[in-house]
UniProtKB/TrEMBL annotation:
Biased segments, Polar residues type: 17-33
Region entry Disordered, spans: 1-33, 465-489
Localization, UniProt: Nucleus
Name of the protein in its database record: R2R3-MYB protein
PANTHER family: TRANSCRIPTION FACTOR MYB33-RELATED, TRANSCRIPTION FACTOR MYB65
CDD domains xref list: SANT
Source organism superkingdom: Eukaryota
Domain HTH myb-type span(s) in chain numbering: 35-87, 88-142
DNA sequence: AAATCTCACAACCGCGACACG
DNA sequence: TCGTGTCGCGGTTGTGAGATT
């Protein structure tokens, strides 16, 4: 497919306002000075040739001079992008190879959405390509109800992070850790949630992909067990206007790997495993309340919802209907701001302190709920392992792409009977799996769990079994079967 | 056959970092 | 130290093609 249309002659006038290229550069002298209308949209082959010729003569860089010297009616930024993404001679064309795909997954597990850094590790590939590939991938996998990272990559990321962490022992030195027995679990992120999103229960796979899938595995797991103020996600939620660069983080080492949690055998780990936020959050998913996502799921960035985060718990937008299901989970509910006078816009530290106080108060109410957590964890894991092994993937051969199939099969590579423990470890290391199993296991309905993993395909089959309907599930009512067919608990 | 949906991709936009005068 | 220009990054949007209804 070529986006470059020879007929595209959209021209814009610099400084014309809305349609001008990015304000910083469109207003620069390089563009305004010539008083030449800048063109936007797809590049023509003639423009490509002009740009290539310019770069051949003058080399890369000084992109704003391109317009002057080459006669191109494009802003420098556009030229740079075109060159970097399409004209560079060292670019590799065509689809990603399986090796490259795997590499991207690995890199994303380690880096998150650091496309440029990932591109640097993939010769001939651009950040844009990788970004597009990833976005497409997570959509696909979300629709299929599959976890984004294959287990082996999780383990690999854990191992690598563990190694790097031994060399970078920031966690105990550089960051003031909360007292072990008084860990404030975060709820501030809830403020940024969109209330008018499709209501759960549409199980975990309908958690916005942006929130669950766009962060490195290391962060994903770490966030599940650590106060979120270690992560920039929280910061960006609290202070949306202030963006942090990817390489930055409020606290050094915010990408601290999960491996600490599992290898250090610390009290910290066990405290978080039994923390009320973790398990009650999963329980809350069953309530069908989007506000009641598990703690780890709530701590995630919402990059694609930047413009949708206006709703807060304290001031529900009139256009944002409240969830149908009232939350019964007091652990997860953030007190309405108008009632508690949260220090709005008062700065991070203050806000964190405030939230910490709030949480402490609710913690006292939640102790009983959380006390059964360890047993729940075991139940969940056993159920999950069993269900995974009962699943017959072969039936879905034709509908699942090879890569997806490979990753799905990775989920249950062992026999339940003799490798339960391994499975449990795997699930423990996968918050997404844990959530899946955690929220569904209590139903004692294995097929629901299957639906979570199989998504559309299973939903469709299930629906057909239940209702005889032949309608496609594509893009609509995904996973509905798991819930429609779910017996009332 | 037409309408609709999904996918893949290209391009744009806003923002922050950095260099330099 | 400050202002300006340039570059790069990450998120979002627009669009054509193909698939599906």
């Amino acid at each position: 497919m070529s986006m470059a249309s020879e007929s595209d002659e959209r021209m814009i006038v610099p400084n014309s306002g809305v349609d001008s290229p990015s304000t910083d550069e469109a207003n620069s002298l390089a563009n305004v000075g010539n008083n030449v209308p800048l063109k936007k949209g797809p590049w023509t082959s003639a423009e490509d040739a002009m740009l290539a010729e310019y770069v051949a003569k003058h080399g890369e860089g000084n992109w704003n001079a391109v317009q002057k010297h080459s006669g191109l009616s494009r802003c420098g930024k556009s030229c740079r992008l075109r060159w970097a993404n399409h004209l560079r001679p060292d670019l590799k064309k065509g689809a990603f190879t399986p090796d490259e795909e795997r590499r991207i997954i690995e890199l994303h597990a380690k880096m998150g959405n650091k496309w440029a850094r990932m591109a640097a590790e993939l010769p001939g590939r651009t950040d844009n390509e990788i970004k597009n590939y990833w976005n497409t991938r997570i959509k696909r996998r979300q629709r299929a109800g599959l976890p984004i990272y294959p287990p082996d990559i999780c383990l690999q990321a854990m191992n690598e992070n563990q190694q790097s962490d031994t060399m970078n022992t920031f966690s105990s030195r550089d960051v003031p850790m909360p007292p072990v027995n008084n860990i404030p679990f975060p709820s501030v992120e809830f403020k940024g949630l969109e209330l008018n999103q499709p209501l759960y229960p549409q199980p975990l796979i309908d958690i916005p992909s942006n929130s669950l899938l766009d962060i490195p595995m290391s962060s994903l797991l770490a966030q599940g067990f650590r106060p979120s103020y270690q992560n920039k996600s929280l910061i960006s939620t609290i202070h949306p206007p202030k963006r942090l660069r990817g390489s930055e983080s409020l606290f050094p080492g915010s990408n601290t790997p999960i491996s600490n949690l599992f290898t250090n055998g610390s009290q910290y780990q066990s405290d978080y495993l039994t923390s009320s936020s973790f398990f009650s959050g999963s329980q809350a998913v069953l309530n069908g309340n989007p506000s009641s996502e598990p703690g780890w799921a709530m701590k995630l960035e919402l990059p694609s919802l930047q413009t949708q985060t206006g709703t807060t718990w304290g001031s529900p937008s009139p256009s944002s209907p409240l969830p149908v299901f009232e939350s019964v989970d007091i652990l997860i509910q953030t007190p309405p701001t108008e009632l508690t006078q949260s220090p709005q816009n008062s700065g991070l530290l203050e806000e964190v302190l405030y939230e910490s106080e709030t949480i402490k108060n609710s913690n006292s109410n939640s102790f009983q709920q959380s006390s059964r957590a360890p047993n729940m964890a075991n139940d969940v894991m056993e159920n999950s392992a069993r269900v995974l092994n009962e699943t017959k993937w072969d039936a879905y051969d034709e509908e699942v792409s090879p890569l997806v199939k490979e990753e799905v099969s990775d989920l249950c590579p062992m026999q339940y009977d003799d490798k339960v423990e391994t499975t449990n470890q795997m699930i423990l290391s996968r918050p997404d799996l844990l959530l899946a199993s955690n929220c569904l296991a209590p139903m004692k309905h294995p097929t629901n769990v299957m639906g979570t993993f199989l998504g559309d395909d299973w939903s469709r089959d299930c629906k057909q079994m239940d209702t005889g309907s032949t309608s496609s599930a594509q893009g609509r009512g995904r996973n509905s079967c798991a819930w429609n067919a779910m017996p009332t608990v």
